Amino acid sequence: MTVLSPHIENIKKAAHALQNGSIVAFPTETVYGLGANANDGRAVAKIYDVKDRPQFNPLITHVKDLETAISLADFSRSALKLAKTLWPGPVSLVLPQKHKTKISELVTAGLDTIALRIPDNPIALQLLHEANCPIAAPSANISGRVSPTLASHVAQDFKNTELIILDGGASTCGLESTILHIQDGTYSVLRPGMITQEEIQGIIGDISCNSTPSPALSKETLLSPGQLKSHYAPKAALRLNATKFFPDEAVLAFGHNTISNHITTKFNLSPNGDLHEAAANLFKGLRYLDSLDVKKIAVMPIPNVGLGVAINDRLARAAA
Ligand code: TXA
Ligand code: MG
């Protein structure tokens, strides 16, 4: 594991590593990604290997521009509208894959759809340009652990892995992308994230939201295995919506409050009750409390509106 500053020479070095079949960790606006050339099956396999990721879990493909995205998938009118409005940005679109692309089957885990996004981070974009290939990248953490929002989080998880890590500082969003599946004039949110349902509705309000994923897909394979309940799990047990606290617990706090004032082992996601700040701090807070080797973490209630929906989704998984 080598951590490099995001100097252009280092980005070129990382791009070469990708072209030569190595994996590279890089910053995005959501969380750090563990990337491989999406056209190189052996390189993609390294991701599954070092992450200890179940084989059936498909990866998001990151591309440098809309033209590349359109060469890989069929965009409906609504999908194009979303892409034009929200990319580069924290939304991934699951779309029918074009036939005869060079994308490795391991990336899509055999599905005939592909998840695409253009990340909104200058280092990630430069890396995509220099490497000149689509980059398949899940979050850069060992499977089942919380997503990394700092280069040091990645370094912690992959201490003994041969890997370049581009250090781009803290991720500005701190929460993974929203994943949308668009098909047959409807869409479903496979994973809530930075872009809220309200924003999506505002862009493609003319098509309807399907709250239950298509049975045809979910029968054969989990539609989005990221929906697995245990995907985001710290070592400590989580107790959600806690309004009273026990002495053996650490507290993940939210907002200005006096109830948890006497508790010393705590992390406040946002003392001012700002959901954006809370989202950016979520994984950092969970990692921090986990690093104290506490057995239990009591989580204060987070309002279930806007970004709070995604935060509560992650917390529910972490508690499962
Ligand atoms: O913000 C993010 O999305 C970050 C950064 C690095 O871009 N990436 C990320 O990737 O969170 P990952 O692999 O941890 O989560 C990808 C999710 C998984 O739940 C996977 O099952 C789902 O996307 N996915 C990928 N391709 C899919 C497909 N064709 N159909 C349904 N779900 C898919
Ligand atoms: Mg992940």
Can you give me a brief rundown of this structure?
The chain has 320 residues and is α/β, with parallel strands linked by helices.
Describe the overall structure.
Helices cover 33% and strands 18% of the residues. With 320 residues, it is an alpha/beta fold. It has an 11-stranded mixed beta sheet, with helices on both faces. Strands 12-15-13-14 form a 4-stranded parallel beta sheet, with helices on one face. About 5% of the residues have low confidence. Magnesium ion binds next to loops.
Shape: globular
The number of distinct helices, counting runs of at least 4 residues, comes to 11
Strand order of the largest sheet: 1-8-2-3-7-4-6-5-9-10-11
Mean pLDDT metric: 88
Helix content: 25-40%
Low-confidence stretches: 214-223, 225-231
Query: Beta-strand percentage?
Result: 15-25%
